[in-house]
């Protein structure tokens, strides 16, 4: 056996940046710009702008990675690394609004993110203190009821379109779902308000179930579209194998198709919930707002977190800062709820998705 020449092996790795070099350059660029912006903010007595620091740090990284790669690896590899870094820069720029939003909400919301905020309502509170327990419970109840309305309707509609729908009826349903996708949230609230005003003969009707119906109008098209796409991804071979064993179509859908696509369906439902949980206009119209606890979806006004944030910001009392602190804390609570829902959805998808073993 011919011995391996060590000089040949070493030649393959010479003139190459180590794998950790781009990460070190990126992290170092961010640290340098954050330090610079920190000194500028301290000198001018202004707020630290993390989004701008990360943006300029990423631009500095693009320059550094090109220069370092040009000196070590040559012009061709430097151009390749520059293009790669520009793609990463575009991704980072797309994330900057989210980073700025989360950092702003954290800075302003954490001072009131305490036990009192989660254990008290705003009943008889006109200044400091109080909390958003009534709004949190209202949000959870209204969103849960909207989910119970939307998921069966949306999932069954998707099953019909994929497994049974043919001809003009399926095309009409698809067209109407597309139209519903573009409905403004205020129109959904007006529909729910008009519907229950006519049914109950009460022009001043306000209750939680009306808000759930309004939100369900916004959730259904998202559930239909996401579930439809997930059901289409199920291989036809699985259906045909089930039919070959004599399993009827409805049982094939129930035992084969839905379990195979349950992970994607769960993700779609979570996206639909995240789409509506922050809606303010429809709930302001039909659910109203109150400072007291209300656990009954069928009677009286019910507060929700988006409406709570809006009322605290738009109608501050004499102690303006206390109202603004509660508004920021409510926004932070809403973000936390959405994050928890996404984590739960991922957990459910992992547990119930089909296990692919050999």
UniProtKB/TrEMBL annotation:
The chain crosses the membrane at residues 20-43, 50-71, 83-110, 131-162, 182-200, 207-224, 280-298, 327-349. InterPro entries: MetI-like, MetI-like_sf, Phosphate_PstA, Phosphate_transprt_permease. It is a multi-pass membrane protein. Keywords: Cell membrane, Membrane, Phosphate transport, Transmembrane, Transmembrane helix, Transport. It holds the Pfam family BPD_transp_1. It is found in: Cell membrane. Its main location: membrane. CDD domains: TM_PBP2. Belongs to the binding-protein-dependent transport system permease family. CysTW subfamily. Part of the binding-protein-dependent transport system for phosphate; probably responsible for the translocation of the substrate across the membrane. This is Phosphate transport system permease protein PstA. It comes from Conyzicola nivalis.
